Amino acid sequence: MTKIYFKKLDEKAVMPTYGSEYAAGADLYACMDEAVVIEPGQTEFIHTGIAIELPMGTVGLVYARSGLACKKGLAPANKVGVIDCDYRGELMVALHNHSDKPITVEPKERIAQLVIMPYICGEYIETEELSDTVRGSGGFGSTGTK
To answer: Which of 8, 15, 113, 136 is most buried (most C-beta within 10 Å)?
Structure first.
């Protein structure tokens, strides 16, 4: 286990937790004084009340919780949130209501999951030619069955 340091910015904040021994994502919790209603088709920024210090060379990816997305229709508006390792501000989740009814988010409710991954920074170099592959420039749907 890698140590991930976090700071509570609000006394009501809940530490991220893993739901099982081998879970890849740690649950993030809503930190607010009262419930927030998200209207159909609307997005609300939900506070977590925490800031984190990710190890250099890693990124925090904020994904939907499958139960929240499938049962209630709530998922991050940007699909996947990206937390750079040099960011030290509060983690917030822009939850979008994809359903046709108002959905209530309760204080301390699990609202998203955080996956920490290594990343590669590339040095982009312009060139006239790229190496050949079997696939070549075949795009969307080009590798499906025939």
So the answer is: 113
